């Protein structure tokens, strides 16, 4: 295996409306044996970036190195990278072992050699009993494992995966996440995985690279990206339910108290710093307490309660827009139409002009529970 180093990569496309920059001066490194997810909204450039690494797109400028070797202008067939596409491409007339071992057939291995290596790979990815079946006899998850097995058998320098689970149902996705992590540990491979699903990225990654508009917004561990977002975009994109984000003012640049614009509400932050006067204050739904007696820093009427097991996502209509809170509702359920107050227990302040993180509460310990008080 090997590391992947990308430096100042740029990819432009020419269209009827002019030049489109899909990847804009991107630099990052995937260490040997690391699992990195590239995540972002549709059209942010993540798949184009992966295709440039694979050699399926030629960069406009910049460097791509595999284990220190420059490959930006090396044809894809000579990079020895395994690419797993979004669409599962199995040969329906071939058995599972033949699909897995097809790269070996192209390189001239004998039938016995191909079968034996396919059997070993199939055992690694836990489909050893399926070797003599055809793709049409398999479930979606089993087909995906066959596609991954076909990439493993080549002993590539690294694995590139482009939204390979996007067509699977939610239950199967969760199962495949666990299995993919186990496969990665078994083969010890360097994996770069593209997804638009932030939950998938948070679950799978050693580190995650968040992109928007062709640029890297943040690169770090899931814990760091979630708890210390670089900017308002990252804070909004990573985390479910989405972070609450309100225009606010810090009088005289004092961050200890922020005034939520047009409401008169004041939120105590516990941040003793000087900051710009015009900010956006962010707080995650899990970092709140809902008061049924109407007390609290913010207030409004519950418009919707989404029940998710013991928890509920509470949507509150307020005079500055919709607020979201996650609460435990089994013992103290809240109802639509109730007027409630909300206290904020951890805050982020972003520059209102460019969205960059200005500061946040120092206490980043995860809350063990969220509460509803009567």
TrEMBL record:
<dbReference type="InterPro" id="IPR017871">
    <property type="entry name" value="ABC_transporter-like_CS"/>
</dbReference>
<keyword id="KW-0067">ATP-binding</keyword>
<dbReference type="InterPro" id="IPR003439">
    <property type="entry name" value="ABC_transporter-like_ATP-bd"/>
</dbReference>
<dbReference type="InterPro" id="IPR003593">
    <property type="entry name" value="AAA+_ATPase"/>
</dbReference>
<keyword id="KW-0547">Nucleotide-binding</keyword>
<dbReference type="InterPro" id="IPR012340">
    <property type="entry name" value="NA-bd_OB-fold"/>
</dbReference>
<keyword id="KW-1003">Cell membrane</keyword>
<keyword id="KW-1278">Translocase</keyword>
<dbReference type="InterPro" id="IPR013611">
    <property type="entry name" value="Transp-assoc_OB_typ2"/>
</dbReference>
<keyword id="KW-0472">Membrane</keyword>
<dbReference type="GO" id="GO:0005524">
    <property type="term" value="F:ATP binding"/>
</dbReference>
<dbReference type="InterPro" id="IPR047641">
    <property type="entry name" value="ABC_transpr_MalK/UgpC-like"/>
</dbReference>
<feature type="domain" description="ABC transporter">
    <location>
        <begin position="4"/>
        <end position="238"/>
    </location>
</feature>
<protein>
    <submittedName>
        <fullName>ABC transporter ATP-binding protein</fullName>
    </submittedName>
</protein>
<dbReference type="Pfam" id="PF00005">
    <property type="entry name" value="ABC_tran"/>
</dbReference>
<dbReference type="InterPro" id="IPR027417">
    <property type="entry name" value="P-loop_NTPase"/>
</dbReference>
<dbReference type="InterPro" id="IPR008995">
    <property type="entry name" value="Mo/tungstate-bd_C_term_dom"/>
</dbReference>
<dbReference type="Pfam" id="PF08402">
    <property type="entry name" value="TOBE_2"/>
</dbReference>
<keyword id="KW-0813">Transport</keyword>
């Amino acid at each position: 295996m090997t590391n992947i180093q990308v430096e100042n990569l740029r990819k432009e496309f020419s269209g009827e409306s002019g030049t489109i920059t899909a990847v804009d001066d991107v630099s990052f490194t995937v260490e040997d044996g690391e699992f990195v997810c590239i995540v972002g909204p549709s059209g942010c450039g993540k798949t184009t970036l992966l295709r440039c690494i694979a050699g399926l797109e030629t960069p406009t400028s910049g460097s791509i190195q595999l284990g220190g070797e420059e490959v930006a202008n090396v044809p894809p067939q000579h990079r020895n990278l395994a690419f797993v596409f979004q669409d599962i491409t199995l040969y329906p007339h071939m058995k599972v072992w033949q699909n897995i071992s097809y790269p070996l057939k192209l390189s001239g291995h004998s039938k016995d050699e191909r079968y034996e290596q396919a059997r070993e790979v199939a055992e690694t990815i836990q489909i050893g009993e399926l070797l003599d079946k055809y793709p049409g006899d398999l479930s979606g998850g089993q087909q995906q494992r066959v596609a991954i097995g076909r990439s493993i058998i080549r002993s590539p320098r690294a694995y590139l995966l482009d939204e390979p689970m996007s067509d699977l149902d939610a239950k199967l996705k969760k199962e495949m996440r666990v299995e993919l992590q186990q496969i990665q540990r078994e083969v010890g491979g360097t994996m770069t995985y593209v997804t638009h699903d932030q939950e998938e990225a948070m679950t799978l990654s050693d580190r995650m690279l968040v992109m928007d508009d062709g640029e890297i917004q943040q690169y770090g561990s899931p814990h760091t990206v979630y708890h210390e977002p670089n900017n308002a975009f990252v804070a909004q994109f990573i985390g479910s339910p989405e972070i609450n984000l309100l225009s606010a003012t810090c009088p005289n640049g004092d961050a200890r108290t922020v005034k939520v614009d047009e409401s008169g509400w004041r939120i105590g932050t516990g941040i003793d710093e000087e900051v710009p006067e015009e900010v956006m204050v962010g707080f995650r739904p899990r970092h709140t307490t809902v008061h049924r007696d109407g007390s609290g820093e913010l207030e409004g009427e519950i418009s919707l309660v989404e029940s998710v097991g013991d928890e509920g996502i509470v949507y509150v209509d307020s005079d500055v827009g919709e607020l979201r809170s996650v609460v435990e509702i089994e013992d103290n359920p809240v109802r639509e139409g109730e007027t409630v107050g909300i206290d904020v227990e951890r805050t982020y302040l972003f520059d209102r002009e460019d969205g960059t993180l200005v500061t946040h509460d120092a206490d980043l310990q995860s809350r063990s529970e969220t509460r509803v008080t009567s």
